[in-house]
Design goal:
Elements lengths: L1 E4 L2 H7 L4 E4 L7 H11 L19 E5 L2 E2 L11 H4 L5 E5 L12 H4 L5
Length: about 110
Amino acid sequence: MVRVVLPAHLHVLANTPREVQLEVGSPITQRSILDALESRYPVLRGAIRDRTTQKRRPLVRFFAAEEDISHDDPDTELPPSVANGEQAFYIVGAIAGGSSAEILPRRQKRMTVG
């Protein structure tokens, strides 16, 4: 069994616990894990990878054995500790955006119309 930890927005979308266990055929790769995850939870199709190209969405990251493997070839075998369930495969939603207005004092946030 492979353990997969999902970010909050995806486990809520799929109505799953934060960590799910999946039967994944060999070899254990990013692609085989994501295929099994999307097969079991079809609502996740398109949320993690593009539906057509199967490429990782820009604001999603993958971690295995405490390493960022987001830019690795999706068919590279993952470490044995992930394949045997000792360590989880993490899907992480990256954080982006925001503005300097969020850190300004309240009085400076007010906009004037004129």
